[in-house]
Design goal:
The protein has five helices and two strands, in the order αααααββ.
Amino acid sequence: MFHSIPFTPRKVEATESRLKAVYDAARLGLKGDALALAAGMLPTEYRQLTQLDPVVEIAAQKGKADGEIELSRVMHQHGWVAKQAISVEVDQRISITGALAEAQKRTLEIIDVTPTEVLEYSSEPSRTYNGRTD
């Protein structure tokens, strides 16, 4: 049995509140789908809206520019400058007595593993059938 599902398409318009939401999301540095979701739209709605009304794209660009200006002001006020060089120092010291003790320990492990019994080799393999030797 077929059931009818009511469907009402959402109306996509560039209202003042939508433009403000797009501006605010772009000011935070969001782009694409993240911008659309933060502005309260589905990504497909945002793309459709940018194609239908170029003012939406201008609002996003203006928000991005204002966000970058605000960031540069904050960085300038606090004297933040990107580092030009990174120095990495590694201080490694080797203890000779410790290295010798580790080497001695490894050789003792190898000696302990060697077999003590010599297995006899027979040229003819033994045949076993149901647990009995033939």
